[in-house]
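Final report, closing paragraph on structural work. Over the funding period we assembled a curated collection of sequence-structure pairs, and we close with a single example.
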Amino acid sequence: MHNEHSHGGHEPEKIDTSAGYEKSDVGITGILVFMMALGIFVVVTAVLCYGIGKVINARMNREDGPNSKWTQTVDIRQLGNLPSSPALQNKVSELTQTFPTPRLLNDDGNQDVADLHAREDILLDNYTWVDQSKGKVRIPIERAMELIAQRGLPVAPAVQTAPMMAGDSTPDKVTVPLTSGFARTGYEQDLAESQAAHAEPAASK
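Its predicted structure, as stored:
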């Protein structure tokens, strides 16, 4: 009695698996209901989208006014591919070269850095005016290094230092190399190598 009460008084249903397949038919009622609901949903959604589009277009037409010869719709596919014009391409090239800065970089800035260093070389390797009215001239860096090597740098006044504390030590002196600290980029080095390679055949001729 206790065992029957605990299981609700029902024995588990026995399934005949001797045939090896399902003998009952598939219930298509649920599938048909789902397909009909899905179709109704698609139709209602399409009608709503069409109606919303018509409302938006009607409002835009009211705000923009009626179409004229300046606002009429044109199918650009009828124009086809426009032929390239060398004169137009040259004009675009000139505009991109003279366009005011800042400009978008199309080569990761390598050419801009090379141009900057070329302008710096003009100042570093030639005599140029700093202030012509005062007679101030910028001399080449090589000549400046020679003058510094001959005359030496101006001596700074002695700095009074406090007495060293216990455990302190005199710091090592750092010798500053007589150099400009200037280094070429990899792009400029490759460019110089290619120019030298092209110059060798011309010199041999």
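Confidence is low (pLDDT under 50) at residues 1-6. The first strand starts at residue 128 and ends at 131. We thank the funder for supporting this effort.
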